[in-house]
Amino acid sequence: MTAAVIPFAEGEAYLDWIALTEALAEGHRLPKAEIADTFLYRDADTLLNRAAWIDGLGLAVKSATVFPGNTARGTSSINGGVMLFSDADGTLQAIIDFHLVTKWKTAGDSLLAARRLARPDSRNILIVGAGTQARGLYAAYSAAFPEARFTIWNRTSANAEALAREIPDIAVATSLEDAVHQADIITCATMSTTPLIRGDWLQPGQHLDLIGAYRPDMREVDDAALHRGRLFVDSLDTTVGHIGEIKIPIETGVITATDIVADYYTPEAFTRDSDSDITIFKNGGGAHLDLMTSRYILDQWEAHT
């Protein structure tokens, strides 16, 4: 059987954000994924090789290059490829556009957490960072919070203004502190290596979604934020010891691994306790989520073509 080749636009036409979060939740009811990650670095550039195998779902291999300097040259800073293999016999079932998997996996991962942790009546959503992920986050959060108003803040204001021209429903914030004060949900997707969000800015009832810090030297929030909020991650295996947002404060004694309330494999604990909770979710985006997302994409492709 010939493997499906799924391009971005054609594949995206069949996808739904809420259905994806349900597929991710279902994937975590299967046996825990086996994951193997390798990271190679050259200054700011990164090569990520990620593989996952879930018994009953299949195997996926994803290779990604992250070259932040590409943005200044007008090209994508993230490139790569995704292959999906059969769980039954190991045959190649699909080659899926890397950017399609990454967009839907990343925003879908955060959206699943927000559906469980954010207040259902959230109406003000702040997107921090105007890069590629901002568009996916706007689309994903709009699906679950259709009455929400969106604001964007970016260190380079011209990029935020450009996104607002592209998506007129988004307002541009000039003060990050003021924008955080006013938000019900803050979703942060930046390349920052130093904290942008301060714990003393946070308000009771907020949900903070952290996406950008994917390297051991990167952080988007300070220590005070971690003390004020209840901390959740998508996977203990791919965040603790690997990602600066969690690794650095554990190494410095600010928090311990036991301060993490839950990951997706313990859904009964992955919940808001009260309307006044400040919930913090670290999106680590492991290969098992690429596998779950790729399987969802292929299932939709086969159902409609």
Measured distance between first and last alpha carbons: 15 Å
Could you say what the CATH topology of the largest domain is called? Rossmann fold
- Computed CA radius of gyration, to the nearest angstrom: 18 Å
Q: Main sheet, how many strands, which sense, barrel? A: 8 strands, parallel
Strand content: 15-25%
- CATH level 4 superfamily of the largest domain: NAD(P)-binding Rossmann-like Domain
* Shape designation: globular
Assign the CATH class of the largest domain.
Answer: Alpha Beta
- Calculate the mean pLDDT score and round it: 95
Q: Give, in spatial order, the strands making up the sheet with the most strands.
A: 9-8-7-10-11-14-12-13
Uncertain stretches: none
Q: Helicity, in percent? A: 25-40%
Query: What's the architecture of the largest domain, going by CATH?
Result: 3-Layer(aba) Sandwich
Domain count: the total is 2
Count of individual beta strands: 14
Structural class call reads alpha/beta
Count helical runs. Answer: 10
- Taken in chain order, the helices and strands follow as EHHEEEEEHEHEHEHEEHEHHEEH
